[in-house]
Amino acid sequence: MELNEILDWHLRHYPLLQADDIYKLIYQGVFGPGHLGTEIDVLRRQLNEELRQRSGCFAVEELEPVDPEGLLVRVNLGAVAGSPVRQERLIMALVRTGRDFVPAPEQLGPRVASAVNWCQKNLPGQASALARRIRDKWGVPVHSEIYRRVYQPAYRVIFAHLWQP
Known about the structure:
Blueprint: H1 3-13, H2 19-31, H3 40-54, E1 63-65, E2 72-76, H4 84-100, H5 108-122, H6 127-135, H7 145-151, E3 155-159
Antiparallel strand pairs: 1-2, 2-3
Helix pairs in contact: 2-5, 2-6, 3-4, 5-6
């Protein structure tokens, strides 16, 4: 799936998508879930806490595309809520992805530039904001306030081949 197709998918599902959200998506596709670590007990505790706090507020789609190579997906936590077996499967997939995924920081700039071009056609008000993200060399990104408030994102990024619905 091309980056433009991934962005089209996200815009269809999240029409209030902002530059911060696009940058976060691209960042995840380049760096994977490494910032979460690979300690099983820590990951399990974080997942359980997030599931407890969310109490049923989850995206409709189980999987979301993340990167043009198709290596990574977002697994929405609604896919595992209420199922200890699926939760454990997600933890194991997260550990394996965090351990084995090789970040490709050299892809960040070109992917953001491509997304800026996409924004000029699809979300013109977000193009310059997205271009600033790469110029300002932001660290680990966060979703925009409106995205968090409206969509309440709750997911984990893992290798696609580890999660077949």
